[in-house]
Design goal:
The chain is of the alpha/beta class. It has a domain of 276 residues: TIM Barrel (Alpha-Beta Barrel), CATH 3.20.20.80. It has 11 helices and 16 strands. Strand 12 and strand 13 form a beta hairpin. Helix 7 crosses helix 8. The N terminus is likely disordered.
Length: 468
Amino acid sequence: MHRKVRLVLLGAALLVLLAAPTAGASHGQSTFFESPGLLLTNATRPAALVKLERLGVTALRVELSWHTVAPRANSVHRPSFDQTNPASYNWSHFDPLIEAAHSRGWQVLLTITGPVPRWAQANPHNGSLVYQPNAAQFKSFVTAVGRHYGGEVQLFSIWNEPNHHEFLEPQFNRNGSPASPRIYRALYQAGYGGLKASGIANPKVLIGETAPEGESRPRTPVRSRLNMAPLTFLRSMLCLNSAYRRAGSCGELPAAGWGMHPYRSGASPYLVPSNQEDVTIGSLSRLTRALDAAARAHMLPGGLPVYITEYGVMSKPNPYQGVPVAQQAEYDAIAERIAYSNPRVASFSQYLLKDDPLRHHNVGFQTGLEYVNGRPKPLLAGFPVPLTVSRQGSSYRLWGLIRPAGEATTASVEVRHRGSSRFVPLATVHTDALGYWTLSSTVAGAAWRVRWTSPSGARYTGPPIRAY
């Protein structure tokens, strides 16, 4: 090595102030990965699972659609069959994935949700497949789900985004009063009862799975399809008034945690919405305060953890909400660090491995680690070794995770100085037993990255990350 370069590196090393080898939060968190298009398709599942293994994934979220497995789901007349018998349903769309996850020892979060069979709605002639699902029939269906998957699924959830009009209707009555919370409460109680009826003595079930934003006080009469703000939904579902005091005769609901999807497409993870009833990753304290208030009113168990069960950062080429792909990797890691730093958060998540295709009227989600053609984005390299860099006066605070490690390990951190195109070594960091690490440094840079080599020889190099 050239003597001048050695001296520069030595000077940089002397300026590095190593923090404790473990991250500051008091817990780890599981990371659920969801990519239904690839994982639920026979032709693409094997390769996708291999890729997820290399990325360090050990937990999946799977949305189980009632309509997909039910007999004669498009009929307005319910067929005659035993709705609690697993043999009455066609599970072939979901079995291979859940069996593959189970064989790998991966955790599965199974979200039991709509769309629903046409015959299971309050009005089967309604054009929707999410209109006031029948709670009693849902209980029978979930009983069958528990009997079929009870030995392979560790965590259940009842419904996907019940405060969103695409997943449950109606959200509001014509006079503007909440409608979906009452419907959802009945579905949740029925689903929980169905799991117990299946033979699962103490089912671990998430409540909520709410979308991040919506209306609190819609204009009346309500004419358009609207979403409901998650905290408005929470209070109404639990029979609480605006001060979180009992406003009805509801009893406490059992739950293992509150599920949440706290992302606004393309927005900074630091965003705090102006509507106090909305919840994003940057305003999680709103939700934990609401949960604590509900617990004080004896409507939910105390200290309920928050499960982030769907999250993604929209990137280009989305023409409306996408951020540059380099920033997608930075934002995603910042969001994961925010979640990790909150001791109430039990899980983080990544929605999509590969982007949805862009269509004229429906652009879908460009939250993937890869473009729709399979070409990698920076997030593909960043997901297994996420890194954040935060300015703290004249120093920098680095936080990271070696996701595939699964145990204590060491990794190399490199810095690129301003005006240079080369990365040079900054420090060797030691992770805790879960793979997390932190580092304090006074070395200024234009970008930082992480390198790690697994015990089997697989090499990981994260993308360049800027300071925020």
